[in-house]
Design goal:
- The structure is a single chain.
- The chain is of the alpha/beta class.
- The strands form 2 sheets. Strands 4-3-2-1-9 form a 5-stranded mixed β-sheet. Strands 5-6-7-8 form a 4-stranded mixed β-sheet, with no helix packed on it.
- The longest helix is centred in the first third of the chain and has 15 residues.
- The radius of gyration is 15 Å and the shape is globular.
- The relative contact order is 0.21.
Length: about 160
C-alpha cells in the first residue's frame, strides 16, 4: 500500500535560508543533496507527498522533481509564485490552500490556520514558521508544523504526524 508523507519549507536553492533558519549546512548544494537523499530514503516511487509550501527558489523546479520519489501535491506557500497551470504542467499538482483530509482528521495549509477555522477533532498541519514557535493566540494541540527544520529534513509519514512532536 502506498504511504502518504508530509513536508514543508524545503526551500531548495535558497542560500539565505541556511543562515536565516540556522540550517546545519555549509552551502545550498549540501542542503539540497541532504534533503533529496533523506526524502528518497523514506519515500517510495509510488508514495504520495504533500508539500506544504516553499518548495524551491528559482526556475529549475522540473529538475528537482525528477530527483524526488513519489507523487507530489503542493499546497502553495508564499515563495511558490508560479501559476497553478505552470506547476500542474510540470507534474507538481497544486491542491487548495486549505486541503482537508477527513480520513486523518487534518487540514493542510502553508501558514498556520486560526484555531476557529479548525473543526473539532482536527489538527492543522502546516509549515511557514520553520523552527519558530507559534504565538500564544494559537492552541498548540490544534497545530503541527512540518517545516524541514523540525522534522529532521525528511518527510514525516502521515500516520505518525499526531504521535511526533
Amino acid at each position: 500500500m502506498n504511504k502518504i508523507y508530509l513536508i514543508a519549507d524545503t526551500h531548495f536553492n535558497h542560500d539565505n535560508i541556511i543562515k536565516y533558519c540556522d540550517r546545519p549546512f555549509s552551502d545550498i548544494e549540501e542542503m539540497n543533496n541532504t534533503i533529496i537523499n533523506n526524502w528518497n530514503s523514506i519515500v517510495g516511487k509510488d508514495d504520495i507527498v504533500y508539500h506544504l509550501g516553499d518548495f524551491l527558489l528559482g526556475d529549475n523546479i522540473k529538475d528537482f522533481l525528477s530527483k524526488l520519489n513519489g507523487k507530489i501535491y503542493l499546497v502553495r506557500g508564499n515563495h511558490d509564485g508560479k501559476s497553478i497551470a505552470f506547476y500542474n504542467n510540470i507534474g507538481l499538482e497544486v491542491v487548495p490552500t486549505k486541503t482537508k483530509l477527513d480520513e486523518y482528521k487534518i487540514i493542510l495549509s502553508h501558514k498556520p490556520l486560526e484555531d476557529r477555522g479548525i473543526p473539532d477533532g482536527y489538527i492543522n498541519i502546516h509549515g511557514h514558521i520553520h523552527n519558530a514557535k507559534l504565538d500564544d493566540s494559537f492552541d498548540p494541540s490544534k497545530h503541527k508544523c512540518v517545516s524541514v527544520e523540525v522534522i529532521n529534513y525528511k518527510p514525516i509519514e502521515i500516520e505518525n504526524v499526531r504521535k511526533e512532536g
